Amino acid sequence: MAFYTEDLHSGIRIAQVVGLTTTAFFAGKTFAKSFSATPALLHAPAPLLAKQWKTMHDSDKALAPAVVAIGTSVFGYLASREPRNSKAFILYTTSASLLALCVPYTLILAEPIIQKLEQKAQDLASASLTDTAAEAGVRQEDTVHQLVDKWATVNLGRTILTGIAALTATWAAVDKLDIVPATIKLAGGAGRMGH
């Protein structure tokens, strides 16, 4: 039998838990949007799809920047406590960098698609939610369905970035644990009192 232990004060453990939990949660949430929610949404007619996508997107608008800020700060702090070039320093720095990379990734790749989808949602707001002819005559690559599909693909990239960030930070936290052998010793009579 073995117990895993590391002599860390509770502030560091809390930072590890907060960083790992928020990053893993965000990775799971972005994965679910791309692989569960989006395929279901794509069955809707264009006006309804635009409205549903906008509702889903707006509900998480503040989440991504908050998770990136928290994760980058926490993992950057944890890296700063480690000796340079140590495995934990490299892993925490990698995690912080991957989370920070989500910002330019989103601005460069996702934002143009998001702006087009928000415009579609505004343009189709007055159309009947089940109107199948609302986008008649629109070029194929500009349809709501095509844009939502592109957005889901780009969103997958954020899933990969945040997922790897969570894994490397977990590796850094777990790698520092030592294995301490634990033994159970049963003593009877006066022997159990140390005599």
From TrEMBL:
InterPro entries, sorted: Anthrone_oxy
Keywords annotated in UniProt: Membrane, Transmembrane, Transmembrane helix
Highest taxon of source: Eukaryota
Topology class, membrane: Multi-pass membrane protein
Predominant localisation class: membrane
Gene Ontology CC entries for this record: membrane
Location(s) in or outside the cell: Membrane
Residue intervals passing through the bilayer: 62-80, 89-110
Keyword Translocase: no
Pfam family, one: Anthrone_oxy
Homology family: Belongs to the anthrone oxygenase family.
Protein name (database record): DUF1772-domain-containing protein
Upper taxonomic lineage: Eukaryota, Fungi, Dikarya, Ascomycota, Pezizomycotina
